Amino acid sequence: MNGRATTGRPPTERGRRKRGALVQAAREVFEERGFEDTRIAGITGRAGVAYGSFYTYFDSKEAIFHEVAKGVAGEMFDAARSAAPPGTEPIDRIRHATGRFLDAYRDNARIMQVIEQISPRHPLFRSLFLEIRGLFVERIVAGTRRLQEEGVASSDIDVAATASMLGGMVEHTARMLYLYGEEHDPEVVVETATRLWARGIGLDYEDPPRSPEEVGVRDGK
Amino acid sequence: MNGRATTGRPPTERGRRKRGALVQAAREVFEERGFEDTRIAGITGRAGVAYGSFYTYFDSKEAIFHEVAKGVAGEMFDAARSAAPPGTEPIDRIRHATGRFLDAYRDNARIMQVIEQISPRHPLFRSLFLEIRGLFVERIVAGTRRLQEEGVASSDIDVAATASMLGGMVEHTARMLYLYGEEHDPEVVVETATRLWARGIGLDYEDPPRSPEEVGVRDGK
Amino acid sequence: MNGRATTGRPPTERGRRKRGALVQAAREVFEERGFEDTRIAGITGRAGVAYGSFYTYFDSKEAIFHEVAKGVAGEMFDAARSAAPPGTEPIDRIRHATGRFLDAYRDNARIMQVIEQISPRHPLFRSLFLEIRGLFVERIVAGTRRLQEEGVASSDIDVAATASMLGGMVEHTARMLYLYGEEHDPEVVVETATRLWARGIGLDYEDPPRSPEEVGVRDGK
Amino acid sequence: MNGRATTGRPPTERGRRKRGALVQAAREVFEERGFEDTRIAGITGRAGVAYGSFYTYFDSKEAIFHEVAKGVAGEMFDAARSAAPPGTEPIDRIRHATGRFLDAYRDNARIMQVIEQISPRHPLFRSLFLEIRGLFVERIVAGTRRLQEEGVASSDIDVAATASMLGGMVEHTARMLYLYGEEHDPEVVVETATRLWARGIGLDYEDPPRSPEEVGVRDGK
DNA sequence: CATGAATGAGAGTTCATTCAT
DNA sequence: TATGAATGAACTCTCATTCAT
């Protein structure tokens, strides 16, 4: 990063468009080929931009990947923050959170995989990856503590470990579904996750009290 | 893979030793640097073998990685197959399986990560990765069905989805612990996983009935 | 050089200022980084001028360097032409010329070095470099011939070779002092050069008439 | 310098030959094009070696240039150290030293120029350049002091400054002759230099007492 | 078989110059 | 004229694989 490339957003409309085209093209190519196998020429070719123009906007392959990854992180953060409407029942909240996370992961699975791929050797992306995951787990921790205070969740569980594992369960499921082609009925997945989660923290889980549509899950992009 | 390298075991003792040294060195270097950043020279250097000799034993970098990966798969398979002694209570069986898997993952985490890293672009390793995981999940499926037949586990659950998710939960936990440095008390992890698992399939889980040592968990390789 | 840039002086005051700023900035950057390592962006950045404007005033990096070099040549020419007041004694004339040359070189050493650096591959700058040097040597030739005619300098010397060598001696001394950090007392340098020069052409050089501190009592011979 | 290239001399005869061919080719190309304009491909092409083989022997363009420069320094050192036979008269010693230096410079002029060219930005080569020059000047200092002790050279001169300037005079003359095409009769040059030098340090210089051949000057490589 | 030098097709990055606005 | 983004040829260095010894 030698500072030659425009640091912030380029000032002109044309520049903004070109930069955006590069980021979009980069995301596609990174998803298709991974980080190492992505060539700058591949990005510029897809963006319809001259090779050298890449370096007008980004200092390196890492830099544009960071840009892509930040966008992904934003989307995942939004999904993690999305809460069910006030007054929603605990189990529906869990169902909602699970569904939103799966939806978000579905849209970002391949690029998330690339972020994870390079994270061992790029601390920056490792952090980003852990932050995305961390936020989701934090929400589970907070939600579980609230349920404990309300007296509906078991009070004898290790909330941190439990939240990490339940979050991991959903994340891993997302990976299997969207990266490794494991096939399950989406409703069954959400319902099974909800059951495991609810029972795991000591809620009384019975048959799905309402259809998934009613709680806004699986909005199908 | 042009078949130039010895296909089976090399006939001489010396050759066998060299080949073994290469595989061992390769595993170490792959763990340290990942697949892309591993150099043939790095492997031969660590193995104390001449550069050119590499191609006497292996056709390519992929070939030796495959050899390494097969070894890892074997170790993981063994862990997945390990069952608690006959007569063990269901919850102790779960605790046992969880502990064995975590132990096996701890010993193979880094190389598993590398296998996963390259799996998107190498169908062979993708299959291997899925097989390792698949065997573990199959065992959960079988175990759960047995518990259903015995009438101790809920009968209304989707066993395939449940097993995939519980397996994923444990696997993801292993990743967080051994690859991303998430810190948890190992006993708490095993116990929390056991609780989530047991409750999730409808068993009556209460306080840990015995200390972890007694069921052979955390055997420290 | 396609002639797109304004050939002569730009007509407007604003343009003249910009051009001047570019030349001044160019000289500084060339001095600091040499020709190859100087970037157009470095020049425009220091001049506070838009990148693209550079080509409004100059056709190429060579063109602006030529402009800079011409300025340097002018300064050096002035120094070479500077003669001691009429009636000055021969040795004082030599001392004067030496001092003026050293002063001029001190002010232009770094850029002179750059001119010389690129001279092997740019005939234009090679000529310029040789002209600067040539004028100085010519003055020495003329002065020496005059002294020969006056009967105070040896008549059996090859004036061209002698002048070239004496000029080179002073020039080389300037290079060592101002480019390579060789440390000498400036007065000693001037005096030593004067002595070598004077004695070399056969003048009677005795004690420096202006430095009473200097010891140096010569043998009567 | 990442240490991949063979550090010392390559062990095999073949390797030695290849390395030598590269150094020889490099010297030629550096002389023709200067440091910046020399391409690795130019060196390997001339040496009849594959592009990649360059990096088997050298880590970088700087590394091979250093090798070339060390060779040149060696030749120049030898010339500087060369002394006239015992019993040679002082003026003949000066004539000898001058001639040897000019001969050595003639053979190394272009590469010396390249060393100087890059010296401002490469401290290593700057040192080398100054060492070459320094040794020659030291010899002059030593010789002059001896002549002072013998009572034949002026005792009131600043030997360090005088030696630097006389050495610089010869060096500069060499540059003009061999780099800038200034034309002088070689014998006249040697004789003029000898005269200026001798008279400058106070020796009684008269007409050349013998022909240059007799003192081993201008040995034509 | 053992050895390690030889090979050369890329890869990312630079930057003088051009050109659209 | 002023601006700064656009262009793409060029360059160095890498390294899996081959091959001569």
UniProtKB/TrEMBL annotation, chains A, B, C, D:
The UniProt regions of compositional bias labelled Low complexity, in chain numbering, are 1-10
PANTHER family assigned to the protein according to its UniProt record, in alphabetical order:
HTH-TYPE TRANSCRIPTIONAL REGULATOR PKSA, HTH-TYPE TRANSCRIPTIONAL REGULATOR RUTR
Q: Where is the HTH tetR-type domain?
A: 16-76
Q: Give the protein's recorded name.
A: TetR/AcrR family transcriptional regulator
The UniProt keywords, alphabetically, are: DNA-binding
Residue spans binding DNA: 39-58
SUPFAM superfamilies in the record, alphabetically? Homeodomain-like, Tetracyclin repressor-like, C-terminal domain
Does the keyword Nuclease belong to this entry? no
Q: Domain of life here?
A: Bacteria
UniProt-annotated stretches for the region Disordered: 1-21
Species assigned in the record: Nocardiopsis alba
The UniProt record lists the keyword DNA-binding: yes
